[in-house]
């Protein structure tokens, strides 16, 4: 049976960071200890600024810990779409920003001696079953227009995989994301930065005297505030009508070292599949030798968050797809899932928070490229805070609108509106007796929707199924053992504690 955890979490331990127990002051308070928050903190600390980072969970325990960690300047939504939505100039800026993000990660690894298996590899975009070659021809044209280094090939020419016609993107990269974050955290602390886990922010107020308030009553006075929590909790609707939560799945299986060329592989399906390999050792996987091991990681089977209940079937389809193409894979040992915030125009929202004070900044909308978008966020936000010009400011401006994305915006927000029908539908089960151990379901009691989780001892944990953000009804996510909101992506743990915004409060307990 595969472990329900990511390879990254299974092969590293988070550093011990204490909770914040008293009021504090800092130049910059950063909420969120994922790649966006810690990159921002590192770059500002390197400039001599006093930074303080807080997070509800441990370092990297959010979406950074469940990524597949592709470092690429081939855009997730395709250059064809980026050119359509942002024009050739915008596409060139996007390409350059992701290229520079990869270079920045490599430079930080070298300068800070971070051992995170950073590796330069090629990326290959190949045709999905039944698709014609003009699909990659149109992407080739758009990628060249954006300034990407790209070559069309009749086959990837790699070991262990026959791709057929494909595009090769040289000089992409990959790494172990949690080891990278842990190295960043050490570098931040060496420069006097402070990192606190177990500290949940409940409000962020900008202005002449910025202030972040924590659930435990502590306050942090600061000159600037950065909200880097995957989805910002400090906005009610300003950003959340322009980005949409999707759920994605990943599996990991060992392959003999060298059986498959280390590279990034993506197909052109919708939703698409994505594959890479990670070199590790038997000791890191619980063995007693340093013999090398390759783990093939495959991802895909995306759907709107909390709008599908067939996780096991999706994992099975993903495994079948992987085995059909990569004959060397052995048993699947890891399976995990994550949430992707897709924006209306394919690029992240990074910059000053709309309709807020000028010293409040956000980083959100990873759009399937969280590792490079998170690094771009650190680079761009540190420039904005230090009042330096940056050529990417307008491209990633959270206040932007793109007329070409109107249909995407309308379709996604109609989908959100339809989720409120759950208020008048029945529950997932009729009785709590139908809920198995380590499982959850929504029931109806006296016209009220109750989210119920049964733990491994059989004890029930009952809470309101109403998301405190804007009142959607949450759904149980068996792949991650979380309660997820189908409207704007808020997520809560088994007992209803919020672990991902935009909700800023826990689900209400029900006796």
Write up this protein.
- By secondary structure, this protein is α+β, with helices and mostly antiparallel strands.
- It folds into three domains: 16-66 and 178-241 and 346-403, FAD/NAD(P)-binding domain (3-Layer(bba) Sandwich); 116-174 and 244-342, D-Amino Acid Oxidase, Chain A, domain 2 (2-Layer Sandwich); 425-500, Rieske Iron-sulfur Protein (3-layer Sandwich), CATH 2.102.10.10.
- The protein is built from nine helices and 24 strands.
- It has helices spanning 7-10, 35-46, 79-111, 134-145, 177-190, 311-325, 370-385, 393-396, 406-419, and strands spanning 24-31, 51-54, 70-71, 119-126, 151-153, 166-174, 194-196, 201-205, 210-214, 219-227, 243-255, 264-267, 274-281, 292-304, 332-343, 349-352, 360-364, 439-445, 448-454, 460-464, 475-477, 482-484, 491-492, 498-500.
- The strands form four sheets. Strands 3, 4, 5, 6, 11, 12, 13, 14 and 15 form a nine-stranded mixed β-sheet that branches. Strands 1, 2, 7, 8, 9, 10, 16 and 17 form an eight-stranded mixed β-sheet that branches.
- Strand 18 and strand 19 (448-454) form a beta hairpin.
- It is globular.
- The two termini are 35 Å apart.
Structural class label: alpha+beta
Radius of gyration: 22 Å
State the share of residues found in helices, binned by percent: 10-25%
Mean pLDDT: 93
Q: Strand-residue fraction? A: 25-35%
Tell the overall outline.
globular
CATH class of the largest domain: Alpha Beta
Please report the total strand number as a whole number.
24
Task: Please describe the topology of this protein.
Blueprint: H1 7-10, E1 24-31, H2 35-46, E2 51-54, E3 70-71, H3 79-111, E4 119-126, H4 134-145, E5 151-153, E6 166-174, H5 177-190, E7 194-196, E8 201-205, E9 210-214, E10 219-227, E11 243-255, E12 264-267, E13 274-281, E14 292-304, H6 311-325, E15 332-343, E16 349-352, E17 360-364, H7 370-385, H8 393-396, H9 406-419, E18 439-445, E19 448-454, E20 460-464, E21 475-477, E22 482-484, E23 491-492, E24 498-500
Parallel strand pairs: 1-2, 1-10, 2-7, 4-12, 10-17
Antiparallel strand pairs: 3-6, 4-6, 5-6, 8-9, 9-10, 11-14, 11-15, 12-13, 13-14, 16-17, 18-19, 19-20, 21-22, 22-23, 23-24
Helix pairs in contact: 2-5, 2-7, 3-4, 3-7
């Amino acid at each position: 049976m595969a472990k329900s955890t990511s390879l990254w979490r299974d092969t590293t331990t988070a550093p011990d960071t204490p909770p914040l127990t008293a009021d504090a002051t800092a130049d910059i308070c950063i909420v969120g200890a994922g790649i966006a928050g810690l990159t921002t903190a590192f770059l500002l600390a390197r400039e001599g600024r006093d930074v303080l980072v807080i997070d509800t969970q441990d370092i990297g325990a959010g979406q950074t810990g469940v990524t597949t960690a592709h470092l690429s300047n081939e855009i997730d939504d395709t250059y064809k779409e980026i050119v359509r939505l942002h024009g050739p100039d915008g596409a060139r800026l996007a390409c350059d920003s992701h290229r520079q993000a990869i270079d920045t990660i490599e430079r930080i690894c070298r300068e800070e001696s971070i051992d995170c298996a950073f590796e330069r590899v090629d990326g290959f975009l190949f045709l999905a079953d039944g698709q014609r070659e003009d699909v990659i021809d149109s992407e080739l044209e758009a990628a060249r227009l954006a300034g990407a280094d790209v070559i069309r090939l009749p086959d990837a020419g790699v070991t262990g995989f026959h791709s057929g016609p494909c595009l090769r993107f040289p000089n992409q990269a990959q790494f172990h994301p949690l080891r990278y974050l842990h190295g960043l955290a050490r570098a931040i602390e060496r420069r006097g930065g402070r990192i606190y886990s177990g500290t949940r922010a409940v409000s962020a107020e900008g202005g002449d005297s910025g202030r972040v308030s924590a659930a435990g009553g502590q306050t942090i006075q600061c000159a600037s505030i950065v909200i880097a929590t995957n989805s910002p909790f400090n906005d009610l609707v300003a950003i959340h009508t322009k980005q949409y939560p999707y759920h994605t799945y990943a599996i990991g299986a060992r392959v003999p070292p060298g059986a498959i060329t280390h590279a990034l592989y993506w197909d052109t399906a919708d939703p698409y599949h994505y594959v890479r390999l990670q070199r590790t050792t038997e000791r890191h996987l619980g063995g007693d030798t340093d013999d090398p091991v390759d783990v093939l990681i495959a991802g895909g089977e995306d759907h709107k968050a909390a709008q599908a209940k067939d996780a096991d079937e999706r994992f099975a389809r993903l495994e079948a797809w992987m085995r059909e193409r990569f004959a060397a894979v052995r048993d699947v040992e890891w399976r995990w899932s994550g949430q992707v915030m897709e924006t209306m125009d394919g690029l992240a929202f990074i910059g000053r928070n709309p309709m807020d004070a000028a010293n409040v900044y956000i980083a959100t909308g990873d759009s399937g490229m969280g590792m490079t978008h998170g690094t771009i966020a650190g680079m761009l936000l540190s420039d904005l805070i230090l009042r330096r010009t940056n050529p990417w400011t307008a491209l990633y401006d959270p206040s932007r609108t793109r007329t070409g994305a109107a249909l995407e915006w309308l379709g996604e927000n109609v989908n959100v509106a339809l989720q409120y029908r759950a208020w008048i539908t029945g529950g997932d089960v009729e009785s709590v007796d139908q809920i198995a151990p380590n499982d959850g379901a929504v029931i109806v009691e006296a016209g009220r929707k109750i989210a119920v989780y049964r733990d491994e001892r059989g004890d029930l944990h009952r809470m309101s199924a109403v998301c405190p953000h804007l009142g959607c009804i949450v759904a149980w996510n068996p792949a991650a053992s979380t309660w997820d909101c189908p409207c704007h992506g808020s997520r809560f743990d088994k007992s209803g504690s919020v672990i991902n915004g935009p909700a800023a409060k826990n689900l209400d307990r029900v006796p």
